[in-house]
Amino acid sequence: MLDEIVVSGMGSISGIGNNLDETLQSCLQMKCAIKELQHIKSIHKLPCAEVSYTDAEMKAILNIADSETATRTALMGMIATQEALNNAKITNDSKYRIAFLNGTTVGGMEKSEMYYFDFLENDKFNHYIEAHDCGACTEKIADYFGCFSYVGTPSTACSSAANAIMLGAELIRNGEVDIVVAGGSECITKFHLNGFNSLMILDKEICRPFDETRAGLNLGEGAAYIVIESSKLAEKRKIKPLCKLSGYGNACDAYHQTASSPDGDGAVIAMTNALETSGIEPKDIDYINAHGTGTPNNDESEGKAIARVFLEKIPYISSTKSITGHTTSAAGGVESVISILSLNNRFVPGNYNFKTQMSCLPFKPVSEVITNVDLKHVLSNSFGFGGNNSSLVFSKI
Amino acid sequence: MLNKPIYINGAAAISIQEPLNETVIYNPLNYSQVHVRCIDPVFKEHLNPIAARRMSLIIKRAIITARYAVKMAEIEKPDAIITGTGLGCVQDTEKFLEAMIRNKEKFLQPAFFIQSTHNTISSQIAIDLKCKAYNNTYIHRGVSFENALIDALLQLNKPKIDSALVTGNDEMTPAYFKLLQRLNYWKNSVDSSLNIVDSENSIGSFAGEGSVSLVLSKNKIKNSFATINDIKLHYNPNGIDEKFIVDFLLKNGLNTDDVSLFITGANGDFNNDLVYKKLDNLFDNNRIGHYKNICGEFYTAPAFGLYAAAICLKNNTVPKTMMLSNNNLNNINNILFYNHFQNRDHSLILLSKCIN
After folding, report:
1. CB B315 within 8 A of CB B277
2. ipTM, interface predicted TM-score of the complex
3. In this complex, is the C-beta atom of A175 within 8 Å of any C-beta atom belonging to chain B?
4. CB–CB of A281/A275 below 8 Å?
5. Distance CA B188, CA B198 (A)
6. Going from the N-terminus, what domains does chain B have, and what CATH number goes with each?
7. Which of A136, A155, A192 sits opposite B141 (nearest CB)?
8. DSSP A36
9. Which domains does chain A have, with CATH numbers?
């Protein structure tokens, strides 16, 4: 029998809120954070969902000197990690072996794209060279707290945070660590804004996931982590868990570097594996927080995969990227937090801006927030470039 | 950590030594440059030229070593594919970044962006092997490969997973070499790369690059290289002490006398090597080995080190170029492999000879 893994805390910062309370309120009110780009200068007029804080504001909150080298991705990561640790009642002098698993893909690119030619030509910004790689970002966050004896950086593009959570559960089950803080952090960069734009998958309007008229995604940014541990340890620490992480699945679509297979084979395997490890049937899932980017390709492929797995009874489905934007590597973290909030606050988040059902799908997403509803099992999907598909199941205790 | 020892059944490398040849560690090339690129195989002998045209260099190398290792391990496809890479597809990242800055965000082609994400390597291997199994990628500085390896071993603890392909891939582009040069990663000059570890007390190493694929399995085959018995990753920006190593051995029922060979990540950089020298009391010089003098320094160099260790165990002999004593070492049973990055990230791997 596998050890039961429970979620004992969480923290989140994204366009829809700088903490858990604000995130919950935005979800309940279906408040969309996607608007004109503020923090980075780009020639493209593309709507995005940014964290409201400036870097200076975050440094002030964190009590970090303005002169200290810290990328936006690291700063957001620190804010969300702080909230998660507080929420799980973990102090910096904790006697437990604690891991920090931080999914990210852009790492320090936000500064590299500003100073790249300086990097090549002079020594002015050498401190940002050191901060460029993804692992450096993870360690920057970890060092701020000083309580982590294991760090790791999963990077599978848009499913990075979900894979961090899966690794965390395995590390606990195999006795490598006691407690894991897992999720992801990613700020918007010109690099991936232009990358997604060159692929013509960014909508110039507010995105419309699972809508027949959908025309692409909007980028978001943020950081979010969940704290997981064995139910035994949570009991010993006298923590009332938020929910169980009852299952997870990871599979590769092995179809194309940036496109999903037409029938969503990889997604079907990931969701099926997640259900199997949870020991539940498809009909037991009450709500799916979909990957639902709003691109024509993803929503068709994911939608068909959902229809294949949940043939018997289609659960409530929505994409909260319609309000948070696509927070890329952090998405699995942000959406795990939203999934857990929905379990514990008895609501189904709405899929903002939905009008027309997709003709190729037998279902439509939840278009208005549903409240006073009992949810037992919620499934969260995160799919990345390269067909890196991951699904997580959170269950009420 | 492991339920039982895991066999290394396939191993292939493209490095600054002759490609796809297990004997290279016994007769390595010596370089007098600070930046050495891989010796590539003739790609058209391995890859469909039309498909290869769309692949970047690092992807070609990764696919070739993956295929080799999988074939050697006598399996059709692995039950998991996991890659460690410090910088991912950095050549394409640089191309997209440079074009974006120079052209002020205009006229950008998606091809370089598509190939730029770090997980391109694992997913391209999956597409090539038509393998929909568990797939993951880790980017964590000098322990990126060990991050991937521990995940592979965690997967192999599951009943349904019998084999895992774990790879370490990095390319050292001229631009990234230059960036790391600013951070004092490299020496000003090198006379003899093979002698870099004991040459001089100066700062920096010499740069290499490489693609290494290992297939791990629960099942022994005739040509199994060695077993992996345990792994430990530890983060401590203040370094480790002897106890860290002794405790790891004790957990495996061993003491320092049972270790035939202690392999370090010594690379000729004064500060890097000092961390290993502080452990001198544990093992005498006749039992201390290294590998970065053969493959050069890059984030996933430990993948080449583990490849070399597996070959040594299979052949029951360690070449003198890998030894601090500069003498050959025979009759080896257990290898303890220790690597650190900036004395912050620490990894220990215990390997043993296959028992028939």
Report:
1. no
2. 0.97
3. yes
4. yes
5. 16
6. 6-217 (3.40.47.10), 227-352 (3.40.47.10)
7. A136
8. S
9. 5-236 (3.40.47.10), 247-395 (3.40.47.10)
